[in-house]
Amino acid sequence: MSNIISTLQNAVAQAVGQIYSEATDPAKVQINTTPPDFTGDYSVVVFPFVKIAKKAPDAAAAEIGDYLQKNVPEVKSFNVVKGFLNLEISDVYWQNFLQSVVTNPGFGRQPRNGRKVMVEYSSPNTNKPLHLGHIRNILLGWSCAQILEAVGCEVVKTQIVNDRGVAICKSMLSWEKWGDGKTPESAGIKPDHFVGDWYVLFEQKSKEAYEAWQQSDEAKRIFETNKKANQAEKEFFREFKNKWFNEHSALGAEVREMLLKWEAHEPATMALWNKMNNWVYEGFEQTYKDLGVSFDRLYHESDTYLLGKDIVEEGLAKGVFFKKDDGSVWVDLTDAGYDQKVVLRADGTSVYITQDLGTAQMRHKELGCERYVYVVADEQNYHFQVLFEILRRLGEPYAKGLHHLSYGLVELPTGRMKTREGTVVDADDLVAEVIRLAAEQASERGEIEGVSPQEKQENLRKVGMGALKFFIVKVHPKRKMIFNPEESVDLQGQTGPYIQYSYVRINGLMQRVEKENVDVSKAGAYTGIQTQEKELLVALHDFPNVIQKAAEEYDPSLIANFCYDLAKKYHRFWHDLSIFNADTAEAKAFRLQLSRSVGQVLKSGMELLGIEMPNRM
RNA sequence: GGUCCCGUAGCUCAACGGAUAGAGCAACUGCCUUCUAAGCAGUAGGUUACAGGUUCGAGCCCUGUCGGGAUCACCA
Asked: Domain check: are A84 and A203 in the same one?
């Protein structure tokens, strides 16, 4: 069944061609939904045609409207207000449309189109558990993957684990020195948190050592000789911290030693590294499971950190890179508005971007995707611009399919999350908290009959997670978002549970239809569609377009807003009109079918956001 | 300082260049004898940071200004 929008676009273009003898691109014809205060379902913007028509907007609108009414069977009537042509679509069209939705559970989704896309949406470090920032990253990425699948792409969901380097060595060293052989099991702590605790302890010990060192004569001497004019001691030492760690700290020396042993594959170090990383993976797995996400392919930095050196050779041969006297290799991107950038150190070791170049190439060989989407916070915008620019210059065949899905940082009402100040919101804590609050509010509301304890718990989990996920995913990715923990667990208003509740209402109706064996075949005979019903139909009709747009823009918030809007309209419909007790059998059947469609679309839309629907609440 | 992003109701967020800028939260007021009130309806709240420009029409596009953030490492 064809889309009414494109039908109207074509017809308007045809009308303009016939009446004014001027060709118009149908795709450029603007069709909007008519605002509630006016009569009509869709409105044609006729201003672009007034020049062609050489008439006043109202006159042109009337002529086009007249043509549409005569030539397009779906157009029942029209009216003209201030140059806007409002069209009313026939009930027959809406009846057919409703029927087509009811009989098509996959409404809104496209068949497979043969396009393969990779979405990398998690890249955690293995020294600490996941936090709120990771949650936004993960939810955005997961949702985009679902949306891309819905428009027909084959999606490969990947994770790249930063499992090596200084950070994990700190945790390792800390556990080795002070861990006393404890394990997550013996300590009764979730394994990734266990590892994170040793990292925190390391930082603490290091901080204490640094403060003690600052009292030494050596420190005073360094301060006096190196301080900037008028620089306070406190500020100087804050800036000096990294240098101190690298050049003066005993712990720092030990960490570097451990890193070297790791690079040399020293067996004991490798064993320790494996042990601790496996603890972390075990913990991550639980968190991912709680968040309801999964990956098709895992990459480890320990496997990829040496990649990219061939590319450097290749780039040198192609003249994209150049070598400096000291032997370091650079790329000059100043003509593209960027800087010069090192791609290989003088000693031949890689830098961050070298590794990313290598990984991109390796992954393309392996996966052969058309597009590669990296879901990474916007602090790395520059890095990805540079990375993509280099790959373009190298003539990599997939270069034009690279996309950085950049999202704004998550802040608390009190400002940025800071590890040092302990304001980081832990992912597991947050998940537990939203479910606890859902349970609390449910119990205030009283028991629901006929629900088993397991089912009840399952529904509470869905409601709690629905609140959390919707709160995060409803915000446009690009915007930095303020995360207010209290608001995130709200269950009323513009929230996940509000949408779930409309679904639960529908679910209740459908169960009754089943039980009472209601005959809905008379739905098609219903006449006189009400505005509350029409609103729903128009909204439903837009679902495929919204998915399409969300896919094009990598923007799940469009789906979230769509679902909220549809749920809101359904609640109004529910309140204003009787469904089971409708005046006629036709109205009852129609409203039940309409409800079924709404439920189906809401479920399908929320699924694209990674949000599940409870049966009861 | 260069580059990029963001400034919309007290707060959190919407609005393919289209009609009178919309929701939720918070505040106040109504609506459960009737399909689940996690709902519905109403009141109040705005010079869309500011100044210009482009056009039939600008929150959206262009220029400038002011605020906020990110980034400009041989760190990752």
From this structure: no
